[in-house]
Amino acid sequence: MAIKNKFVYRLSLWIVPFLFGLIMRMLLSTCRVVIRGGEYLDQCDNDGTRFINCFWHYSVLCVTEEFYRSGRKWVAMISNSEDAEYLVRLLRRRGCVIFRGSQGKAGIKSIRGVIDWVKKGHFSAFAGDGSQGPVFTMQSGVLLLASRTGKPLIPMVVAADRYVAFKSWDRTLLPKPFANIDICYGEPFLVPAGLKMGDMEPYRLQLEERMNKLYAEAWHRFDQEGH
Question: How confident is the model at residue 213 (pLDDT cuts 50, 70, 90)?
Answer without folding.
Answer: very high
